[in-house]
Amino acid sequence: MKRTSNTFFSPIDLDHDIETPIYQQLYGWIRTAILDGHLRPGQRVPSTRGLATELKVSRIPVLNAYEQLLAEGYLQTAVGSGTFVARLLPDDSSRLLSETAARQRNESALKRGTRRISQRGTSLISRRVESGLPTLGAFRVSLPALDHFPIGIWSKLVFRHTRGSPMSTMAYGDSMGYFPLREAIAEYLGTSRAVRCDPSQILITTGSQQALQMCAHVVLDPKDRILMEEPGYPGARNAFIAAGVTVVPVKVDHDGMNMERLIRNDQNARAAYITPSHQYPTGVTMSAARRMILLNWAARTGSWIIEDDYDSEYRFGSRPISSLQGMDTDARVIYIGTFSKVLFPALRLGYVVVPKDLVSAFAAARDAADIFSSTFYQLVLTDFIREGHFARHIRRMRMLYMERRAALVAAIQVEMADRLEVIGAEAGMHLVALLPRGVDDREVSRIAAGTGLSAIPLSTCCARTPVRGGLILGYGGVGENQIRNGIRKLKTCVQVETPLALRKGSVSSP
Ligand SMILES: Cc1ncc(COP(=O)(O)O)c(C=O)c1O
User: Fold this and answer.
1) Contact 336, 302 (CB under 8 A)
2) What is the pLDDT of residues 244-271, one digit of tens each?
3) In this model, does residue 417 exceed pLDDT 60?
4) pTM of this prediction?
5) How many CA atoms lie less than 13 Å away from 61 in the CB half-sphere?
6) CB-based contacts of 99: which residues, under 8 Å, 6+ apart?
7) From 141, 206, 209, mutation site for ligand 1 pocket: most ligand atoms within 8 A of C-beta
């Protein structure tokens, strides 16, 4: 490392061992010295020859550095008298804070977290739910049985398309998605979910999260109000908040979202977000009467219903509940589905079934967001569905999840009947277990995380503190042994003074 003497500039450290060329190091040093005020306007700088000698480098890098500083207006020359710091610095740089001062200021502001961001950004941070994303341990919610995924078949299809992809599939694709996949999904939804649509209405998304964001952008304006189940899916709440929409919580009871309150007080809402087949997280199913009330409300007020049908493939012991979209005669329902649960979440593929008159708006919103989803995985998925692997996998997983749910409920009965009360229908890949009144679910969740368990507190799904806290326990990706061991561990995390068994009249709703 070479340094100048202190004759003119303060010492310049030149490092010959790094990749940054010498001329760039010099340029950076002089520019910073000017902006920091160490070199004042009008001050003479050494000649290129003098500086090169002083630094013991060739003259070329010094010439290059000076040339750039002259071109950018930091230095100027006067014929016969040498080179000076410019009297008037370039517009941008004079407005720039001294870099060092700015860095120092930013560092302390970063430490304090005081740099101004939007209200939406602040609100998102405050609502962030730590989902324990990296963990594959018990009882991670939303995780399918990855070890039961037919990875061999999937890999063959991936190979088929890597080897034989025509160039057209490598170019930009349709923002609504790959048409054959949309056809396959329309067929599947028609037969298994009673969704009424044709492929032109299907838009392929990067999972349901993107579908929710797009709904917020297409049908709602900032400050519009959306009704949302309480407790409800935090991912949806975040998508709406990120779009500046006001979320109005509506209590969930045994029949789903309680619309009576909505009808009584005109909430002036523009939309409602619901998970009618298997309410997230409580697991209740919306009654037929409530469905009719909701659809009539939407038709009467010209509002939209966003139906999130995230895991209805998995219903044990009873027939699948038909979609709300299939009952809708006024094209008010926007239906969202995902492959995250039926296949795997890292695939990041989902879909929205859009009312016909909204198709062009959704396509434009997708263009404005990220244009389209990876064509390659859309091709693979199309074959996976068309060749029967999809239906077979769902059938197998339905059996597996039924057994895992039974194992979890049994383990809770054996180990924690005095501390946990399971609620919700026999469906899906998670259940909610209510804690006794007065037990702080966030604290239990924190202690559980310390033992390697993921138990999302029910209160993170609530805008207001619930009467009873609870834990959301996923079982889809958890083997039976792991379930039993997990519940034994969880038992040590829930300290109760008055166990459930000794309570009289404890209610089964949060
Ligand atoms: C209610 C609900 N909707 C949607 C999703 C899936 O989101 P994505 O398709 O973005 O993975 C989840 C996953 O946890 C969910 O719980």
Assistant:
1) no
2) 999 999 999 999 999 876 766 666 899 9
3) yes
4) 0.81
5) 18
6) 32, 35, 36
7) 209
